[in-house]
Amino acid sequence: MSGQSPSGDQAEVERIRAVYAARDAASGRHPAIAAAYRRLNAERTSITHELVATVAPPPGGRLLDVGCGAGFDLARWLEAGWSPARIAGVDLVADRVARARETCPGVDIRLGDGSRIPFDDATFDAATAVTVFSSILDPVVRRVLFVEMVRVVRPGGLVIVYDFVIRKPTNPNVRGLSLARLADLGRPPDGSRRLSPLLQIVAAGELIHPRVGDIAMRFAPRTHRLSWWRVQPGVERTQRAEPATAAR
Question: What is the CATH number of domain 58-197+222-230?
């Protein structure tokens, strides 16, 4: 840096890095919360894998996890039988990239901030992002990341986003991804499905008995949405674009 203040985009990236660093330094979860997370993640990954299989039946597809963190989802793809050479990840936190490389040997995991995903055009059959866009408060930065995900996916492939529908009022570092905000990424998704029962209700059920946790998984209000876009041939791949509508 030459003493100049960072651009708006870079300031947003640095804010996100600081939030993730604080989150990583936080103490561990209560066992019931951890068990509830495992249930929610199992539901989400199962449905995501089914969706990806429609455009990239294993083992022949190629997949990118954007915001891969320490490699949790990449490890699930490996467990599902995907070759390390067929999956890749990118994250903006260097420590998380290092941990992901240890967790997922042989997987191409790169450091990047989303303004330019460090892969060539049309490299992948699908690109996923899990609770990534809700962490970006700037709607233009969200839009740029989405355009980059579209750029690295081949025509006919999928961009898949899993994120909060609403946020906790006490957490100022996330935005709920309403359908309007999803449309502001570029266009409305081609498909969307509500997932993930309210974590605290599932955890409370787990404390009572796993079968009560099963009931909570079926009936608790769902707090997240899995959405997907099929990449169209000739889609505009500009780096900068204003959101289509005002953020909601």
Answer: 3.40.50.150
